[in-house]
Task: structure prediction
Amino acid sequence: MTATYRAYMRPFIRLFTGRLREAPAVLRRGPLRTDAFSSRLHDPRVASLLGMWLGVAFGVCFLTGLVSHAMQHPPSWLVWPSRPVSLYRLTQGLHVTTGLACVPLLLAKLWTVYPRLWEWPPVRSVAHALERLSIVPLVAGAVFQLATGIANIAQWYRFRFFFTVTHYWVAWITIGALGVHIAAKLAVVRANVGRRRGERSRLTDRVSAPEQPGGGLSRRGLAVAVASAAGVIVTTTAGQWVPGLSGLDLLAPRRPDIGPQRLPVNRTAAAARVTAVARAAGYRLEVVGPRPFALTLAGLRGFPQHTSRLPITCVEGWAADATWHGLRLRDLLDAAGIPAEATVRVESLEAGGAYRTSEVNPAHARDPLTLLATGLNGADLDIDHGYPARLIAPNRPGVLQTKWVHRVVML
Amino acid sequence: MNGQAQADQADRRDHNGRHRAVRAVTTAVLRGGPAAAGLAAIGYGVHGLVGMRSATNPPNAAQWLVGGILVHDLLVVPVTMAVGLVLTRLVPAPFRAVLQGALLISGAVALASLPLWRGYGGPADNPSVNPLPYGRNLAIVLGLVWACATAVIAVRAVRAVRVRRARRSHASACGPPAG
Result:
């Protein structure tokens, strides 16, 4: 059966793997020469090991990115829990920190395989051409994701596309190209990694040669340097979300204790154009449900007050703990006769914008920690933190902790 | 060859054939699975990118995607090579590796925080975005990196001197007998 199958498949296999006519040797100049790249770091074993680390790091970025995406655009089957309180702080902190640590990993990995860009002959077969072609979305996507991510956390917008949407779709392209790449390079990795790699060396013609003596960086030296670079980057940036490390936060775009009332702000009242309307004397908080009612500023203070210690966890990867006080959201909902299984929408005084309103599912709306906060760290809310009232709930991205709230509506 | 031996051989051939077929199928699944899933994911990503053009601005996104490859392949790598070449000419062997390592770390750290120490980005009305003195902080971090590199170079230099001395005294002790 195998024989007939093989006979049947042979033309297809030949179509893909049959050797194409070689390009004329006269074109083989410059970087296309055999000895054009002399660094002993251009080596399949180093490339495989770096590739494995990079694969794990990209996997972490992709999965944590999916979590963040699902939280902001929840599919109907997903109910995001309100506990553990700091789950999103962990996933999004990991997303940004891992991405930053990928900078030295990616550069080193690309260095080890750079001569392959100039390999001769440029194309050996159709299969070879397809495999080389799959590198284009991989490298383009990887560089794009790191570059746009670094620019976005610094709020540096030189590109003319919307960051979150584009970063999300390019993530799919990149992870897909990584899957194709892993399939294409599995044999090379197996022949170059693992204690029994010697037995698998016949899987490919790309087998690591013994390291030549030399005065420059050795393969082990490269590993030490790349790990150190990643270590320095993580150490000097993770303090923007890891409790207790903010003293080491030297090169991150945020410091958890810098901002009005010692808390960072993502969108100011001026940027949201709500300064005047938020300070207006006629402010009312409307709660719309079976028994709708409205509260003045004095009415807000008349409600039972509670305190919650909750972090603001931003999509940009920073997180800062704070002590909030104000009304429990569930007390407000009960007063309006809104049933426990209802989802509510919280609306800001902002006139427009992607984050003017947010939906609060029952898990978050009924959590005793969830507040409509009127105070922060022992004082009234600063206007930039959402005066007169803002939502603060556990395990939820900062962009969904709606500020300058004036309406709570049952859906 | 008798009939029994022939049957044995046929059996073995059959077994080998089956073994090879199983391995071929396993390989096909191991490689074909990720490849097919990968192609599907690429298709999904491209479809989304092109489908939401008001947000993704495909021509601009494509410029940045292609630009990333070009900047890396035609700028970053050649510049790194040129630096390597200069180092090969100027710095002797046991110290060059340390210098290369320290340069790699410095470059990566500077690149990962580029907008911050260059002062790019951050709205003017929000002092909590990019609030730190990043130029000074980068100098502190890289200062520590280069202090470590200097220490490693010093250790290597001392070791090299010791080895040379030991060799010389060894050579004089075991030198050719006089006379």
About this structure: Residues 261-410 of chain A form a domain with the Sulfite Oxidase; Chain A, domain 2 fold (CATH 3.90.420.10).
